[in-house]
Structures are given as C-alpha cells and as structure tokens.
C-alpha cells in the first residue's frame, strides 16, 4: 500500500483521540513559513529542475481540533534555523513527513523546534522537494536536498554555533525514509557538485526515525539502486547510531517496517535503540500525544540517547 493524502487524513482523524487539546502553532497569527532565518540549499536552480518550477503553497489541514500547516510546491529547498537560548553544540535537522505529497511543516517542523530548542539543540527544519511535482529523476530529489542540507550546515557550523561532529537528523513518516536514506546512503552520488560545500562530509552523526517508512517501494517515487530506497539493505560500518520510535497501533505504517530496520541494524552491528509504543497511532510528532501516554516522553528519551551517543561510542549489538 502506498501512502497518500487521503490515508494520512484518515489517520490524523483517528489519532485525534490521543492528541492533546493544546492549540497548535498554526492557530496563531505568528505561525508563518518560512521563519525569519532560513537558508536556500542551492545557489541557483536545484538539480533536476523542470522548465517550470512548482508554486509554493501553504494550507491548513487535519481534523478540526488539530489544524496545522502543510507545505506543497517546494521550488527552492531550504533549511529554517531555530536557535536555542542555551545552545550546547548539537544540531538536529528535522525532516517532516507527508507521504512525499506534502510536508507536515508544523507538526514535524515547527513543533520539533519548539520541543528540542529548550533542550539545547539548534534545530534546522528541512523543506525538501516532493518527487511528484515535476522534477526529472524524481526519486533522487529528496536525497539530494538532504545531503546538501547536511553539507551546508556542517560547512557553516561556526556561524550557527554548533559542533560539526554533532549534527544529526530526525525524520517522521516519509521523512523517516529520507532520514534512513541519509544514514545508509549518505555518500551516494545523486547530484553533480555545484561548489566547495559539496566537498564537505555529508554523513549524519546520529539518526532518529519516528513512525518511519523504511521501504521506498511504498513511496512509488521511481526507479534506481535498490539499496537507496530500501535503506535497511545498506546498513554497515559507517551507518550512524539509530533511534526508532513507532506505535504498534499505527494504521498507516505497519510496525513490521521499523522492526525490520531494528533487526537489520543488529545484524549489521549498527548501534540502535528502539521504542515500540502500545498506543499512539500515526503522525503524533513530538507533542501531540496525551501526556498520560508513556509514548509522550519519547523526546526526552531521544535527548538522553543523543547525549550518550555523542559523549562516547554506543556499543553495537553483538
């Protein structure tokens, strides 16, 4: 089964019972996109650009009690920068999901920044191109933008006040597939170098996968090297530590997908930690689970895990 807008809407409605009643950022006039500090990934037109670029569009979507911003028509991929009051050198690139048909820019972008900047992370929300919006070789464009984002952030680490050896990614749903691809296929040559930034290492130092899609076949984005779209087949010695969160009652992505990723990581001796929640559904992000559910604590667990992963190597499974 592929993921599409209609199934995501159904899942969002079904998850409303487990969501908190706190108003979302999109219900405030201050919820604008992009924020004041954002950086284009590419100096000119992005790779694989069609003659006519898509038109950016922001809409409010989701169930009535949880309306949130969705973004389509990404023509100029960018990272939006959210700086903490007390930075600790860690950088987190948030990759929103949306079935590769839209970007859940609020739930899995703005809310990620709101959750993790108080913990010391400098958060970068990635606005990446959607394969179905006219790009040539569409299967490559998300990974192109993900690789370029890591290189750009690492190349400018000093200006961001971050440690270039403490840059990680966290991806949600379809964004989890991109995060897993960056962890497993970070050095795949998917675009021609455009400047000196493309000489910078693009390997993330850690990767979080939250209710992730882990099989590119579900996204139906095109053809290419099998491992690029099935990242669990590419895990190896250079794969960074992985952190997985998934709900067993997810109606969109079966728990077998992250479970397969967990098993593949163990077989490849990749450090991995996984949390399978009894209840949570799909699309809960960092702040939409009711606080009486244990799964609502996953951001705290992720923060502690990242601290440990960066302080000393985590032992790989034997």
Key features of this structure:
eight-stranded mixed β-sheet; 318 residues; Rossmann fold; alpha/beta
What does it look like?
The chain is of the alpha/beta class and 318 residues long. It has one domain (5-49, 59-311): 3-Layer(aba) Sandwich (Rossmann fold), CATH 3.40.50. Helices cover 25% and strands 16% of the residues. It has seven helices and ten strands. The protein has helices spanning 5-15, 106-116, 141-155, 157-160, 174-184, 256-267, 298-311, and strands at residues 38-40, 57-61, 68-72, 78-82, 91-95, 122-127, 167-172, 206-210, 242-247, 272-277. The strands form two sheets. The protein has an eight-stranded mixed β-sheet, sandwiched between helices. α2 links the parallel β5 and β6 (122-127). The longest helix has 15 residues, at 141-155. The two termini are 34 Å apart. Residues 8-30 have low confidence and may be disordered.
Question: How would you briefly describe this protein structure?
Answer:
With 318 residues, the chain is of the alpha/beta class. It contains seven helices and ten strands.
Which CATH architecture?
3-Layer(aba) Sandwich
Task: Indicate the percent of residues in helices.
Answer: 10-25%
User: How many domains comprise the coordinates?
Assistant: 1
CATH secondary-structure class: Alpha Beta
Helix-and-strand structural type? alpha/beta
CATH topology: Rossmann fold
Which consecutive residue ranges, at least 5 long each, have pLDDT under 50? 8-30
Please give the number of β-strands. 10
Order of strands, widest sheet: 1-4-6-5-7-8-9-10
Terminal-residue CA separation: 34 Å
Shape: globular
Compute the average pLDDT: 88
The CATH homologous superfamily is named Alpha/Beta hydrolase fold, catalytic domain
Order of helical and strand elements:
HEEEEEHEHHEHEEHEH
Gyration radius over CA? 18 Å
Largest sheet composition = 8 strands, mixed
Number of helices: 7
Strand content: 15-25%
